[in-house]
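Summary of Year 1 activities. Much of the first year was spent building the evaluation harness for sequence design. The harness presents a backbone, in tokenized form, and records the residue chosen at every position. We chose the following record to illustrate the format because it has been used consistently in internal testing since the harness was completed.
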């Protein structure tokens, strides 16, 4: 069940994302998680490019990724992202990647990230993002 602060993004592994072993290179998971976060925020009216043009950036402060099983070339998968506010200036994003196979979702990767809005290299309270959690 999707809550107001949960989103699902679907994609497929492309040939250039796999290494010589035929599995997704670990660095690409960061791209998948970032794409899913950005799409969610855009749907909620937060355009990261416009914010950046005005000197305000939403940055990744930390992330922890646990790998359970690899994705392989042409695998179809979903990224489930759940957002919450962890403090006045920090936001948590819990994400998981699940392989879509025979109508089953097999969880492969889990990430817990912390994001923070900054302006002029200083953390700030981002009202538009905080408004998503009231």
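For this record, the design step produced the sequence shown next.
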């Amino acid at each position: 069940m999707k809550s107001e602060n949960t989103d699902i993004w679907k994609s497929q592994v492309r040939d250039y994302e796999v290494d010589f072993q035929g599995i997704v290179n670990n660095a690409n998971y960061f791209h998948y998680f970032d794409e899913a976060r950005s799409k969610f925020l855009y749907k909620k009216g937060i355009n990261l490019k416009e914010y950046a043009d005005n000197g305000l950036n939403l940055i990744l402060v930390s992330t922890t990724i646990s790998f359970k099983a690899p994705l392989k070339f042409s695998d179809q998968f979903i990224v489930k992202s759940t957002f919450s506010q962890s403090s006045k200036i920090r936001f948590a994003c819990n994400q998981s990647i699940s392989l879509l196979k025979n109508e089953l979702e097999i969880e492969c990767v889990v990430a817990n990230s912390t994001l923070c809005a900054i302006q002029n290299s200083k953390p700030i309270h981002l009202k538009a993002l905080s408004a998503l959690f009231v």
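The helical segments are 27-43, 48-53, 127-130. Quantitative recovery figures across the full test set are reported in Table 2.
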